[in-house]
Amino acid sequence: MPKRIDIESILIIGAGPIVIGQACEFDYSGTQATRSLKEEGYRVILVNSNPATIMTDPDLADATYIEPITVEYVTAILEKEKPDAILPTVGGQTALNMAMDLHKQGVLEKYNVQLIGAQVGAIEKAEDREQFKEAMDAVGINTAQGGFVHSWPDAEALLNEMQFPIIIRPSFTLGGTGGSVAYNHEEYQNLVENGLNASPITEVLIEESLLGWKEFELEVIRDRADNAIIICSIENIDPMGIHTGDSVTVAPALTLTDKEFQKMRNWAIQCLRVIGVETGGSNVQFAVNPENGRMIIIEMNPRVSRSSALASKATGYPIAKVAAKLAVGYTLDELTNDITGKTLAAFEPTIDYIVTKIPRFDFEKFPSASGHLGVQMQSVGEVMSIGRTFRESLQKAFRSLEVGLDGLEPKPPAEGDPDVSRARSLDMSALRYGTAFRLLKVRQAFLEGQSVEDIFNVTKIDPWFLQQIQQLIMLNDVETLQATSLRELKLNGFSDRQIGQLTSRTESDIRTNRKKENVLPSYKVVDTCAAEFVAKTPYCYSTYDEENEIRPLKGKKAIILGGGPNRIGQGIEFDYCCVQAVFGLQDLGYKTIMVNCNPETVSTDFDLVDRLYFEPVTYEDVLNIVEFEKPDGVLVQFGGQTPLKIANALADSGVIVIGTCPESIDLAEDREKFGKILDELNITCPQYGTGKTIDEVVDVAENIGFPILARPSYVLGGRAMEIVYSKEQLIDYIARSADVTEGHPILIDEFLEDAFEFDVDALCDGKMVHIGAIMQHIEEAGIHSGDSACVLPPYRITTEAVDEIIRITRALSLRLNVIGLINLQFAYKDGQVYVLEVNPRASRTVPFVSKATNVPLARIAAQLAAGAKLCDFKLKSWDNNHHVAVKEAVLPFNKFPEESIFLSPEMKSTGEVMGISETFGQSFRRASISAGNEIPSSGTVFISVNDADKLNVIPIARDLYEIGFDILATSGTAQELRQNGIPADSIFKVGEGRPNVVDGIKNDEINLVINTPLGPQSRYDEEAIGRACIQKSIMAITTLSGAEAAVRAIRLTNQTIQVRSIQEYHH
């Protein structure tokens, strides 16, 4: 059927902020769908609260709303835009749940809007585990034994017919939140109750444990003429019991017999029919019992999912794009396959390589996490790699992770290795549990003499994978090495560094040797058809056989290095900058080449650049590509730390790095040299010093005066940083971080308590400087800038201070000879402006600033790097907008419930949201709602503040009382408030008596918490309060500036919601 002409405009619902379980794969699918529908001439309206996305760029959709994805705000958009249809399948679980809420509340009917791509009935059948089970049973597809419960008595009754262990899965939650495994009766009750709380419809599925079964997924596409094709099969190396997002997976599935695969295929297609998914991509998950071959279907997602992004990148088939076309009435046999240009989209992709995906974890950020993987997703990112064999692809994936591994082998303990967690010996007793580096433990077990069978019995990892790992170990042995050719080692994925370590030579020796023997990589094309047709879109990977399938691009060209896997501290913001850099270079007529290994991103989309190399972003792999392509320049400033780590080595090897030179980027990191520049330019920074021994450190600290900020000298994202208030605490800090700081100096900085903090993003072309924006943080100094909310334009600052900030920004940009972007952080206290940090590269605030001011900073920066000048761009000043934008951080504490919720200099957030409106209060309100903090409009507020805050909390408490809140406080705070004429009841702290404040939160008697940290002695209280707030989703505010902003937001509760698109704000 040709496309529908009865609809003209379509609303796409985005996925909101990046959280664990839902990352930037939905930026990639949303961007593809938006482009795909605009191509067909539809008016596309988009809502998404996440500014760090390409899909919210003002020139992509016709109307872009950066608003909370809630019924109230989406309804306001529907009322204003009056779209004919909503496409809810490219925004993850967020969009599906939103569509269901709009349906249930009668909004779709009221505005006469239809869903396309997935109907309500199909979503319900697929998402509601009870209906799904019934539907599968009706057509004879096996599912796990078990049943549904809505209360504890129901759950108890089920025990008669089931044996432990038992899996508990709440309905309608994301990334397995609330899921768990119970091994005995006592845990069972607790876990069931947690599950019922986590599910928005208080429903939990209790089912037989499938621990140790093999897990598979099929990515399927179906159209309204009932054509169905399998895009890709994916096999999890880790058996059932570990969330598929946390498993190492391979595509295509490698250990199924043909018969099993056909059965799985038939069931998957039948499942789509029974559920009623009329069009689009779905993901169907299966489990197979290795002992008897019993196969069951676990679940299906009637939407584009994380696995769809992987399947899309693994095969080259643009799932989201095709799904969007099918949703508007096309059938598969009417669409061409974009990669070949000759075949139809109805052809099933065939692949002649192996793809491996490995998740990236950040457990060191959450000391309370056990590091054991389970049915609830905990990874923060992933890498994918492509090789001709499983062995090659696995080794490439390990070196893509950026955790200091050069392949499938642990890092050798280096002298004074900064990251001790890598040098720790592997805990072999934990082999039976899923952990982040379980395959390294498997390797170790082989070295300790265990057999394939022994390891299979403990891990239940299929023997085929274990044999492959065993083969790698055999190659990795000094005797075998002499006999093995270099080419053979390279075909097995060994990096030059690995080979160098084995033969006690340097990486560059091996490289020179390799070139002498003419062992060079050949590049193959991902073409969906195993090289049967010529691919139009050059999407490549390297291997070491003889034949090259591509030639270097002709014309002027540049390479952009991507950001690698997402992690806390380096996320989608940097991918956004890389994509913008591509647009910028294309504006100047360059051919663009992207190197990246993250399958979730827009930067690795098949049609973004002129050529995509899906390769690890390491010195060796990048240099191979540079030597093959010989580009006019390489851009390293846009992908966060990943490309910067290798920038110097590349420059030393003769690579032309364009933009700010690597020496200037390093200069800003070197305290001594940088200190001299600051003196020379008459710029103040907090006092600082360094020490290697306890005595030195204590001396430095006492000279500067407490409080101080202590940190090791080479950390990222603020790891192991602490604010220290006394000599005793300092000695304790040194003792605790000794393992991290071994042999490295500790840096001590004066800590500016109660200072206001500012962030500036600017552009420089070597002669002129353009201020992109000045933002003010809501939280005071001492909280990592990535975790604090920030406001543009600033809300409390003198003209003199702004002038000084601008003077310093200009002076430093020119002195460091910046060509492109620079980010500076300032503190302001007692009339003095201090420089805290300078980064001459893209920062994580660039997307937010670009959306708020309508100036595409990264796009312009890439052009400056290629020689353009600022005067060519006619940029308007950043401060003449008539709106206020607020960026708020999204924190993953619900996945790590034991973690302290107090923010610190160490970054913990996974994503960000933006609120935009005419006023500060309204923007903060929208940003808070988007970040998942429900702002109550009335009820009871609990206040407990430290002595320094007692006086300043009085006006806040008075405002809340006047708005109509009842006030509860700890005895000291309550007394202060009453003396100032504010009625307040007192309540026990934890440990003073019952009922205490935590009981109050758990009994729903408290609606808002304002609790500023009081130092170590009351840490216990605060953590108990914090945990209770997370369980009950109550907003817990931990700074007074945050409380002031919340009061402004509460005042605006009853204002009618008015929405404007980004395009309207800027024109």
What is the strand and helix layout of this fold?
Blueprint lengths: L8 E5 L11 H15 L3 E5 L15 E3 L5 H11 L3 E3 L4 H13 L2 H4 L3 E2 L4 H8 L1 H10 L7 E4 L2 H7 L7 E5 L9 E3 L2 H14 L5 E5 L5 E9 L5 E9 L12 E3 L6 H18 L4 E9 L6 E7 L4 H10 L3 H9 L26 E7 L20 E7 L2 H11 L19 H4 L14 H10 L4 H8 L3 H13 L2 H6 L2 H6 L4 H7 L4 H10 L5 E4 L13 E5 L13 E5 L10 H16 L3 E6 L14 E4 L4 H11 L3 E3 L5 H12 L4 E2 L3 H6 L3 H10 L7 E4 L2 H11 L3 E5 L9 E3 L2 H10 L1 H4 L4 E5 L5 E10 L3 E9 L12 E3 L6 H17 L3 E11 L2 E8 L6 H8 L3 H9 L18 E7 L20 E7 L2 H11 L9 E5 L5 H14 L2 E4 L1 H9 L5 E2 L10 H6 L5 E4 L7 H13 L3 E3 L2 H12 L10 H5 L1
Parallel strand pairs: 1-2, 1-4, 2-3, 4-5, 18-21, 19-20, 19-22, 20-21, 22-23, 35-36, 35-38, 36-37, 38-39
Antiparallel strand pairs: 6-9, 7-8, 7-9, 10-11, 10-13, 11-12, 12-15, 13-14, 15-16, 17-18, 24-27, 25-26, 25-27, 28-29, 28-31, 29-30, 30-33, 31-32, 33-34
Helix pairs in contact: 1-11, 5-6, 14-16, 15-16, 19-20, 21-31, 26-27, 32-37, 33-37
What would you call the structural class? alpha/beta
Q: Report mean pLDDT, rounded to a whole number.
A: 88
- How many strands appear in the DSSP assignment? 39
The parts where pLDDT drops under 50 for at least 5 residues are: 414-424
Cα end-to-end separation = 39 Å
Description:
The chain has 1067 residues and is α/β, with parallel strands linked by helices. The protein contains 38 helices and 39 strands. The protein has a seven-stranded antiparallel sheet, sandwiched between helices. It has a seven-stranded mixed sheet with strand order 17-18-21-20-19-22-23, sandwiched between helices. A seven-stranded antiparallel sheet has the order 32-31-28-29-30-33-34, sandwiched between helices. The chain is globular. The relative contact order is 0.08. Residues 414-424 have low confidence and may be disordered.
